[in-house]
Amino acid sequence: MRNKLFLALLMGTSVLGTAGGAFAQDATLTIESWRNDDLPIWQDKLIPAFEAANPGIKVTFAPSAPTEYNAALNAKLDAGSAGDLITCRPFDASLELFNKGHLGDLTDLAGMENFTDVAKSAWQTDDGKSTFCVPMASVIHGFIYNKDAFDQLGITPPATEEEFFAALEKIKADGNYIPMAMGTKDLWEAATMGYQNIGPNYWHGEEGRLALIKGEQKLTDPQWVGPFETLAKWKHYLGDGFEAQTYPDSQNLFTLGRAAIYPAGSWEISGFNTQAQFKMGAFPPPVKAAGDTCYISDHNDIGIGMNAKTKNPEAAKKFLSWVASPEFASIYANALPGFFSLSSTPVKMEDPLAQEFVSWRDKCKSTIRSTYQILSRGTPNLENETWVKSANVINGTETPQQAGEELQKGLDSWYKPAK
Amino acid sequence: MSTATHSPARTFAAHAVLIAYTAIALFPVLLIVINSFKSRNAIFRSPLALPTPENFDLIGYATVLKQGDFFLYFQNSLIVTVVSLFLVLLFGAMAAFALSEYRFKGNTLMGLYLALGIMIPIRLGTVAILQLMVASGLVNTLTALILVYTAQGLPLAVFILSEFMKQVSDDLKNAGRIDGLSEYRIFFRLVLPLVRPAMATVAVFTMIPIWNDLWFPLILAPSEETKTVTLGAQIFIGQYVTNWNAVLAALSLAILPVLVLYVIFSRQLIRGITSGAVK
Amino acid sequence: MVTETARSKSPIRWHIAVFLAPAVLIYTLVMILPLFGTLQLSLYRTIDGVRQFVGIDNFRTLFGDPRWSASFWNALGNNVWFFIIHMVVQNPIGIALAAILSHPKLRFAAFYRTAIFIPTVLSFVVVGFIWKLILSPLWGVAPWMMDLVGLKSWFTPWLGKEEYALTTLGLISVWQFVGIPMMLIYAALLSIPDEVIEAAEMDGITGMSQFWKIKLPLILPAIGIISILTFVGNFNAFDLIYSAQGAMAGPNYATDILGTFLYRTFFGFQLQLGDPNMGATIASMMFFIILAGVCVYLFAIQTRLRRYQF
Description:
The complex is a heterotrimer of chains A (419), B (279) and C (310).
Chain A: H1 2-18, E1 27-33, H2 39-53, E2 57-63, H3 66-79, E3 85-88, H4 92-99, H5 117-120, E4 133-146, H6 147-153, H7 161-174, E5 178-180, H8 188-203, H9 206-214, H10 222-234, H11 247-255, E6 259-265, H12 269-275, E7 280-283, E8 295-306, H13 313-323, H14 326-335, E9 340-341, H15 352-363, E10 365-367, H16 382-395, H17 400-412
Helix pairs in contact in A: 8-10, 8-16, 10-16, 10-17, 16-17
Chain B: H1 8-35, H2 40-45, H3 59-67, H4 70-101, H5 107-119, H6 126-135, H7 142-165, H8 170-178, H9 183-194, H10 196-212, H11 215-220, H12 229-239, H13 244-277
Chain C: H1 3-7, H2 14-39, E1 44-47, E2 50-53, H3 57-64, H4 66-101, H5 109-121, H6 124-135, H7 141-148, H8 165-177, H9 179-190, H10 194-202, H11 207-235, H12 239-245, H13 258-267, E3 268-269, E4 272-273, H14 276-301
Antiparallel strand pairs in C: 1-2, 3-4
């Protein structure tokens, strides 16, 4: 009798639970993504544009929080309940999904010809034979500054490191602004906005990155410890209690006009545009001496692929081809200034700050984040350890040399460079 | 009662301690709710001030209510919590009664078996659970969540309830048996009412992790129709993390319904506890 | 239990099965089978895409490889400290509050009870976020409040300092969960029959000595339960650290406990890919630790506690 009650309860709840999931004749595609910030743009701009051109295909954008995305996605892929389209993290994380058979092979997808090999490199097998995600955007590192504050104090955007620290010193002496808005609480901020932002000038971009992969350079070499030494000096210019300052804290500190300089990724642009009440400018990571070649981190950040087990492979491919088209590139890049299209077709952007960032591509050499390709395939994970070490160095709990040594030791424990 | 236990100084001290602790418990919650009604600049400039007509601002709530169907999320959370709670209490009490009342082969073993679940976080079984739900077609239904939460709540319920059921007097049960009551009646009529305080305690224990769980809604039922309040709030906070107006409003919206529910429920809870104690 | 001899005339007592069946079925199907599916992963390893049985090799790696073992001992040590904080701060406060509240003539008891329990009903997402805001140097609520009592110089960004972060989180967790021991002890105190108390008062045992001599021994089983619940809860803890400090449990893994260590290993984090086999190994260790604790409780403590039937 109680079992009947139980059954009845179960049935009752399952009816309640499934009431929303009516089946439609049309193919419905679900996009898995960590970009929950972009939800309105997908709902209001991108999806309507696609659906208008492709009647019969419905698209749902279903993001989860960035911190849970990988774990949740992997669990859903393993169990077979993941969405049809998968937003791809660059390099090894997606490669692993492809190797496990979760991502479909898109090498021959119509539209792939719109991308250069460099753009595709983040989502290819090591031999470059198979591509499994359509490249969507890259992000560029640099510094965003409060133009009003700079004008007030008579500072011009610094080009060299010496000028950079002179500017910080001047802002600090004036006392009206916190010189730089960055915290170490969230760890990744220190590594991404700090180490990977200024690092390429030290290790000479691709040259150093590839040498590290080949084992010709070590993380204990001066060009890899150098950025840590500079970061250690940043400590004096950060706000009080930066050790407990989170990433959103830093953003608020800058957009409320309380800090003068923000070590940035270009993805901040659209958020800052709506929140900041002052004029903003940007400058690339300062070089050692005037006239040195500058290097910037122009990192392939986001792509989109197909769940190999999707029930609607045709519709999914149609959608992906559309993502590969110049039309998508133009809508996306303008809706989200700071996410730069990877398409070979040039995209016209309206936002001045985004234009400033992208203009560095012409005068500086581009590279990607040093830890992303190949070097983060083992345990301990180089990228994650770099987060911890960057924060330690800025907090002053570890010296730059120690940080470099420990990172190298961790890498040596599992990574054997191909000879 | 003797006057020694009720000297005014003692009473005063008791109230002082309780008031101090109440302040500690409530302050953070009040802080969030108060600030959710203020404009962005006021939040940062004077976090501890009450909202005034000049800086009163509902922009945060407007943002939240525009984005997600918080009412639906709330309803989902409520269904999941209440049904799981009911099943945990019923099945848990039944099993606890069997374990504490009857001597049978494997009793201790069964007790240990049922206690195993307290020791491993059920989160570890995620992939297998998800496979089970996919196989039975329960993904993106509230049933999936209810099943998981029922299983998750049972070990602790059995553990606590059997502890309390051992305290129920044997004479009473034997009297019932002599009167010809069946074992089922003894359980429902005699024993259950007597362990009401323990049931209320178990109810609270079980309810909190269910209501607040983020992980299983995210994995098993992330669709818009089945989202729970906690999941909705988490996604929302992730999305608007720099927009403190919206974040504070979302936090308040996630807190207030539970508070209301709890305040209503706590009367029942205390009544349950006290009525059980006064026999 | 005396009744059993009288009632064993029916050979199969179906009602026992009926009482046990629903709980055992759901529990086995949805919890035990998936969990053991996971735990057995600790005996396997995936080599070149093929799953192989490796016996206890993963455990050897966990304890033998200096990197793994350093992380494990760090997490275990932190976890023990987290537990100690709860035992010496949360449970005594909970018992004290319950003792004050259970006073029969106390006014506003219902209000206090309700208010003090409120943090417990909040979700970790909310609690983690609220305290991050309050302790945030940017918002300045904590420094301002410490200024009121003249302790401003004591303020440091606690959550960002290796030496304070874990203790701070432990206290936050105490703040959140003190209501649970309070409620359990409160229920136990209320169920002490009036006759017992009255008899004590006849003998002139009142006030504090009444609590120590009469009530405390009677509520010892309840204290036993909250201790073991605290133990199990703390060694399974994850959410608060995760929502306040992230999966990397910074700064420099100073707040890493077994739960966060397990999560990072099992599911992976950011570029770190999940390693279900090593994750399951850690999970098995957690299981053994908790099992050991529960056994100590069941066999060494619980059997010695006198239980009173009222």
